[in-house]
UniProtKB/TrEMBL annotation:
<protein>
    <recommendedName>
        <fullName>Homoserine O-acetyltransferase</fullName>
        <ecNumber>2.3.1.31</ecNumber>
    </recommendedName>
</protein>
<keyword id="KW-0486">Methionine biosynthesis</keyword>
<comment type="function">
    <text>Transfers an acetyl group from acetyl-CoA to L-homoserine, forming acetyl-L-homoserine.</text>
</comment>
<keyword id="KW-0808">Transferase</keyword>
<dbReference type="GO" id="GO:0008899">
    <property type="term" value="F:homoserine O-succinyltransferase activity"/>
</dbReference>
<dbReference type="Pfam" id="PF04204">
    <property type="entry name" value="HTS"/>
</dbReference>
<comment type="pathway">
    <text>Amino-acid biosynthesis; L-methionine biosynthesis via de novo pathway; O-acetyl-L-homoserine from L-homoserine: step 1/1.</text>
</comment>
<feature type="binding site">
    <location>
        <position position="163"/>
    </location>
    <ligand>
        <name>substrate</name>
    </ligand>
</feature>
<comment type="similarity">
    <text>Belongs to the MetA family.</text>
</comment>
<keyword id="KW-0028">Amino-acid biosynthesis</keyword>
<dbReference type="InterPro" id="IPR033752">
    <property type="entry name" value="MetA_family"/>
</dbReference>
<dbReference type="GO" id="GO:0004414">
    <property type="term" value="F:homoserine O-acetyltransferase activity"/>
</dbReference>
<dbReference type="InterPro" id="IPR029062">
    <property type="entry name" value="Class_I_gatase-like"/>
</dbReference>
<feature type="active site" description="Proton acceptor">
    <location>
        <position position="235"/>
    </location>
</feature>
<dbReference type="GO" id="GO:0019281">
    <property type="term" value="P:L-methionine biosynthetic process from homoserine via O-succinyl-L-homoserine and cystathionine"/>
</dbReference>
<keyword id="KW-0012">Acyltransferase</keyword>
<feature type="binding site">
    <location>
        <position position="192"/>
    </location>
    <ligand>
        <name>substrate</name>
    </ligand>
</feature>
Length: 310
C-alpha cells in the first residue's frame, strides 16, 4: 500500500524510480478507509535527503499513511530553501490542534551543545509536551532520542571521547517486544554521534527498557513499556553513502575525522560501502507502524485525550 504525501513533493520522483508506491492527495481522496496520520519533525540540515530516507521506510507496509512534515519556526534552516519549507512543511502553530497516530523526531548535528543552548529548545519542549496528548506513539532518532529522554525522563547525555561513526553489530535483548518481531539475534546499524546515553540510567527508569544494544556502540533502542515512545540512538534510515558524505563534510570543516568504522571495505575509501542495515531498517519501521501504532491507536484520534499521557 502507498504512502500519501503532497502532490509536488520532490521526494516522490526519487521514490517512484525505486518502484515505491507513493500516492498523491488527489488519488488518495477516493479511498474510503482511515489512513494513519504520521507527523515527521525533520531537524536534519538536508531535509530533502531525510524525507526520502524516512518515506522509503514508511512505505514498507500495507497501510495507507498520510504524512505531514514539521519544521522549527524558531530556527533558520540554512540548507533547505524557504520555498521548500513553505510548500511542504508546517509550523507547530499550524498542527498543534491536530492529532496524530505517530510522530517521528529526527536527529540533528548539534549533540555537542547542551540542550538548553539549542536555539529551538523552547519550541521543541512545547512539541514534546503536546505529543503526550496528541500523538499515540513517537519514534525518536539519535539526537531526537537523547532530547526526548532528557525531556520526558530527565536522563542526560554524556560526551564520548571521540565521534562514534560506523556500522556496528547489535544484540536484540528483548525479542518478545512486538517492535522487534522477526529480527535476528544480531543485526547491523549505523551510528554517527558525539554523545551517548548510559544504560544504567535507563535501567533505573521504571517505565523504560533497553531493547537493543551494541558491544561497540552502546545503546541502540530503548522502549517505553506501554509502546507509546521509542528512542533509537543510531540511524537505520541512512543511505549507503550517508556516512561517507558526513565524513567528507567533516574533512572540509577541518575536523580531521577518523574513517567510519566497519564501513569502507578494507578501510579503502575508493571501495563502495556494503549496505548491511536496510533490511533491519524496513522491519523496525514497519513493526512500529503495525504493532505500536496501527494495532492500538484509537480510530477517532480525538480519543487520545482520554487515552492518557505516555
Amino acid at each position: 500500500m502507498p504512502i500519501r504525501v503532497p502532490k509536488e513533493l520532490p521526494a516522490i520522483k526519487v521514490l517512484e524510480k525505486e518502484k515505491i508506491f507513493v500516492m498523491d492527495e488527489d488519488r488518495a481522496m477516493h479511498q474510503d478507509i482511515r489512513p494513519l496520520e504520521i507527523l515527521i519533525l525533520n531537524l536534519m540540515p538536508k531535509k530533502d535527503e531525510t524525507e526520502v530516507q524516512l518515506l522509503r521506510l514508511l512505505s514498507n507496509t500495507p497501510l495507507q499513511i498520510n504524512v505531514d512534515f514539521l519544521h522549527m519556526s524558531s530556527h533558520d534552516a540554512k540548507n533547505t530553501s524557504i520555498d521548500h519549507l513553505k510548500r511542504f512543511y508546517h509550523q507547530f502553530k499550524e498542527v498543534k490542534d491536530k492529532f496524530y497516530d505517530g510522530l517521528i523526531i529526527t536527529g540533528a548535528p548539534i549533540e555537542q551543545l547542551r540542550f538548553e543552548e539549542v536555539d529551538y529548545w523552547e519550541e521543541l519542549q512545547e512539541i514534546f509536551k503536546w505529543s503526550k496528548t496528541h500523538v499515540f506513539s513517537t519514534f525518536h532518532i539519535c539526537w531526537g532520542a537523547q532530547a526526548g529522554l532528557y525531556y520526558h525522563h530527565k536522563i542526560n547525555k554524556y560526551s564520548l571521547d571521540q565521534k562514534l561513526s560506523g556500522i556496528f553489530a547489535h544484540d536484540v535483548l528483548t525479542p518478545t517486544w512486538s517492535i522487534l518481531k522477526g529480527f535476528d539475534d544480531v543485526f547491523f546499524a549505523p551510528h554517527s554521534r558525539y554523545t551517548g546515553v548510559k544504560k544504567s540510567d535507563i535501567d533505573q527508569t521504571e517505565s523504560l527498557e533497553v531493547l537493543v544494544e551494541s558491544e561497540e556502540a552502546g545503546l541502540f533502542l530503548v522502549g517505553n513499556k506501554n509502546n507509546r515512545a521509542f528512542y533509537a540512538m543510531g540511524h537505520l534510515e541512512y543511505d549507503r553513502e550517508t556516512l561517507q558524505q558526513e565524513f567528507e563534510r567533516d574533512q572540509h570543516k577541518g575536523i580531521e575525522p577518523k574513517l567510519p568504522k566497519n564501513y569502507f571495505p578494507n578501510n579503502n575509501r575508493s571501495e563502495v560501502p556494503q549496505l548491511r542495515w536496510h533490511m533491519a531498517a524496513s522491519l523496525l519501521f514497519s513493526n512500529w507502524l503495525n504493532y505500536a501504532v496501527y494495532q492500538n491507536t484509537p480510530y477517532d484520534l480525538t480519543d487520545l485525550l482520554e487515552v492518557g499521557k505516555y
